[in-house]
Amino acid sequence: MELTPNEIRNQKFAVSMRGYNRSEVDAFKNAAAAVLEEAKVAYLKLAEEKESLALRYQELKNLEETIKAAVVEAQKGAETTLSNAKKESELIIAEARRRRDDAIEQKYRKLAEAEARLEELEFTRRSFYIRLKADLGVHLKLLDTMNPEAPEKETKEKPRLDEFENDIDRIVEQFRLETGAPEEKKDEPTQNNDI
């Protein structure tokens, strides 16, 4: 049975001869009603507070779920960004390596072309030197034959080709032997090989 504070205050008891003191009973009823009234007010406040806390709890729970979802989404975004950055860095590195390899290949190609050109020029220089030396030898022989004051030449033994110190001298000597050009005189100044 639920009693309200007013019901307690308004409750009437039958009067008997040997009953309780009326003023004490009324004072007790009023005190009990006041306590019950305070308890109900406290109960209502607690109920409101409970409802408010339940709403706040639900809001916080929703916020927590939102934060968790945001964290998961941020992690996925970070992983995607990291993955994309790795792929992009791998592409950049691959492109840099390709360019480096192309540059190295181009340098080697230019070096090979330069070496081939250098060999060609060296061959041309040697050929020019040999022809010039041979032509000079022929002209010297011609001049010697035209010189009326030249003494009779003694026949000399032909030098062997392995006695010469370098390839150009061997080639010149071979050419001289094949063409019959006169031998160079040792006391004459040597020709410059840097022509």
Structure keywords:
single chain, 195 residues, mainly alpha, 0% strand, disordered C terminus
Q: Can you offer a commentary on this structure?
A:
It is a single chain. The chain is mainly alpha-helical. It has one domain (5-146, 157-179). It is built from 3 helices and no strands. The chain has helices at 5-10, 22-146, 167-179. Helix 2 (22-146) packs parallel to helix 3. It is rod-shaped, with a radius of gyration of 63 Å. It starts with a helix and ends in a 16-residue tail after the last helix. The model is unreliable at 186-195 (pLDDT under 50).
Largest sheet: none
The helix content, as a percent range, equals: over 70%
Shape: rod-shaped
The secondary-structure class comes to mainly alpha
Q: Which strand-content bin applies to the residues?
A: under 5%
| Rg value | 63 Å
Number of helices, counting only DSSP H or I runs of 4 residues or more: 3
Return the domain count.
Answer: 1
What is the first-to-last residue Cα distance? 135 Å
Oligomer: single chain
Query: What's the overall average pLDDT, rounded?
Result: 81
Find the count of extended strands (DSSP E, 2+ residues): 0
- The H-and-E topology, N to C, reads as HHH
| Uncertain regions spanning at least 5 consecutive residues | 186-195
